[in-house]
Amino acid sequence: MKNVKFLSLIALLSFGAFFLSNCTGTEDDPDPVPVVNFLGGADYLSDDATLTANTPFTVGIAANHTSNIVSFKVVQSLDGTPSVDLVDSADFKTENFTYDFEGVTGADAGTEIYEFIVADKDGNSTTKTITITNIGDGGADLAVLEEDNNGDPFRVYNFKGVEAGAYEIGIGTLTSGEPDAQKDIQDSTRNDEIANWPARWTSRNGTTFKKVADNAWTTITNERGIEEAWNAAGEAETAILMEDGANYILKLKGGDKYALVSVTKIEETTGNNSDYVQFIYKYVQ
User: Fold this and answer.
1) Measured on CA atoms in the order 158, 165, 148, 233, is the torsion positive or negative?
2) FRET partner for 24 with CA separation of 20 to 30 A, picked from 64, 110, 136, 210?
3) CB 59, CB 38: distance < 8 Å
4) Which CATH entry fits the domain spanning 35-134: 2.30.130.10, 3.40.50.10610, 3.40.50.10070, 2.70.50.50?
5) Phi-psi category of 168—alpha, beta or left, where left has phi over 0 and alpha has psi -120 to 50?
6) pLDDT at 10 over 50
7) Rounded-to-integer distance, Cα 256 and Cα 203, Å
8) Is pLDDT above 70 for 14?
9) Under a CB-based contact definition with an 8 Å cutoff, are residues 109 and 136 in contact?
């Protein structure tokens, strides 16, 4: 009989612990909130950035939720001034959506904060924020060059082949016999790399290189912008491996002029050293 009472007591305590555990879990579990992410890639601003005045930018939003999303806001504040709703939409019910916010930085230097707020019908919300440091007047616009005077794309070929393996920004292609002082870009392929072309650039005149963000081609539009992007991009390199679709800033001839290069194609060939990097670029003329 004692054993029966003892077992009954264990059962009662176990049931009580189970009841308390479940009650506590219900009270402590938070309601689910919308999941919000910034879209990445060359067309989008997806992180805090430094831009010049009057620069267009795009922020892509992807949101999803376990229940219906009923409102979406974009709120802007400038240097602590009262916030302004740039987008205030409450006319949809969906569990997921994407949205491209098209913005332009202000005419004056300052800090611009953009909040992207997604909420459900119960008021559960998620906010993502991007801060833009507007550095003001950007100076001269960058000239954009996408093909040469003959309508052909810009290419730097494997220097071990017969095609032109060097280039001077704003001037054109160069061959091995032309002055090194002009060669802002030269393909860098050693004899022991002929069978495995590395798609590596160097220079012969003090030009150095930095890889920059995927969206640099879109967001860098003027003289001040390219200089700021260079300063923010880390250590300069004297030789750099090129990647298809990537962007690079060149500090030309060791001076204070810059070019922004975007790689549009990398072509590897076999047995003829006709490999090349194809590109477009921007610079101050």
Assistant:
1) positive
2) 64
3) yes
4) 2.70.50.50
5) beta
6) no
7) 16
8) no
9) yes
